[in-house]
Amino acid sequence: MNDSHLFKRTIVKHEIPSRYLPEGSRSIRVYLPPGFQEWISYPVVYCQDGEDFFNFGRIATHAQKLILDEDWNPFIIVGVEVNKKLRTSEYAADGERHPLYTRFFAEELLPWVESRYPVRTEPNERLLAGDSLGAAVSLSLCLAFPALFRRMISLSGAYYDASYKQLLQQESLADLQIWMIVGLQETAFESDRGTFNFVELNRQARALMEQKGADLHYEEKDGEHKWGFWQNELPDALASFLGPSPIFTR
């Protein structure tokens, strides 16, 4: 009997129609784990900057190895593409397209994926992941739609003033579970909005989240604001939620 399907890695691309986005659609890519069966339900990871998470973060490669070699329970990954020219407008909390993108994500993308793939629909079975402004928009989704999103991975989050104001407006973050990391060499990162000390941005966001009751794991390590740093941290980040001995329990 040929059991090659048990080790097969599948990545499928789709175009999701949208009433909110001016372009009328958004591309995604979906990783299906080895041994995928349509009658089994799976936890799901939704990644901002989907192309970068797959190409530079190598998230599908990490997942394949963890499932096959480390005996993790399988999970599905959905990478949501972004036009880099519109990224700040969509991801920054005060961006012009931010309300449209977050509504697309919660009201169109999520139902589309859940109607076509056997992903689990409980908020504790969904995990958001984002780097820099991708972490900021993931936080926005958790704050705006707490019934849908409560768990996230933050890789050097770009928590500018607008994100901090979002946090200040929250009475409680007791339902939020967040894994955060920032590189110690990210003290003068030049972005399209100016030069920022990401270590301080993340320390300030962490303190406010903890003050409001978030369940939080925070790390600072040697590293720059680059995928070369984040790629190596992804297995630990995923393990905190999906591994055999998670930090965050349901």
Top keywords for this entry?
two-stranded antiparallel ribbon; Rossmann fold; 250 residues; alpha/beta
How would you describe the overall organization of this protein?
With 250 residues, the chain is an alpha/beta fold. The protein has one domain (4-242): Alpha/Beta hydrolase fold, catalytic domain (Rossmann fold, 3-Layer(aba) Sandwich), CATH 3.40.50.1820. Helix content is 36%, strand content 22%. The chain has eight helices and ten strands. The chain has helices at residues 50-55, 59-69, 87-91, 98-116, 133-144, 161-168, 198-211, 227-242, and strands at residues 10-17, 25-32, 44-47, 76-80, 126-131, 151-155, 177-183, 189-191, 194-196, 215-221. It is globular. The relative contact order is 0.13. It holds the Pfam family Esterase. This is Enterochelin esterase. It comes from Cohnella kolymensis.
Summarize the structure in short.
The protein is of the alpha/beta class and 250 residues long.
Task: Please give the structural blueprint.
Blueprint: E1 10-17, E2 25-32, E3 44-47, H1 50-55, H2 59-69, E4 76-80, H3 87-91, H4 98-116, E5 126-131, H5 133-144, E6 151-155, H6 161-168, E7 177-183, E8 189-191, E9 194-196, H7 198-211, E10 215-221, H8 227-242
Parallel strand pairs: 3-4, 3-5, 5-6, 6-7, 7-10
Antiparallel strand pairs: 1-2, 2-4, 8-9
